[in-house]
Amino acid sequence: MKKSTKYLQNLFKSRFTDYRVRHPQPLKNIKAIAGQVQIYHFHDWCGQQLKTYHIEVEESTRPYYEQQVESVINAVDKGRITRAQYGALLIYEGHDFEAEWLKLITQMVDPKTDSLLLLYDDAQSIYKHKSGLGFTLSSVGIQAKGPMPFN
Q1: Most Cβ neighbours (<10 Å): which of 38, 64, 72, 128?
Q2: Residue 37: is its pLDDT beyond 90?
């Protein structure tokens, strides 16, 4: 398991525990809710999608992780991987996502809920040496509601 995936799992568990301490009243189906949460590093998720839907990785000269992403995108476009798989998605460290990755991920959100939370900070980008995402959120299918100030 990658460090980033383990970190997110631990973060979820600690936040979930914090919530239960602050709100001690019993929550119905709390284990069922926790069991519905999936935490993946983006490239691990791509690999899992390929495995789940029995899709072969399309070979090219690109690095293997890029071949996986490309294979998932193509399989979604061809209807071989189901869209709208998730009621809600949280993308952490979104500043490191490519436009194609976000476009793919937005298709995985159930349009009935249209629940996507994208967290990013341009100052923390490890892959890009520029300011900003380099594309608009609307160009990748994200209907942003405007800046949300932190208090």
Answers
A1: 72
A2: no
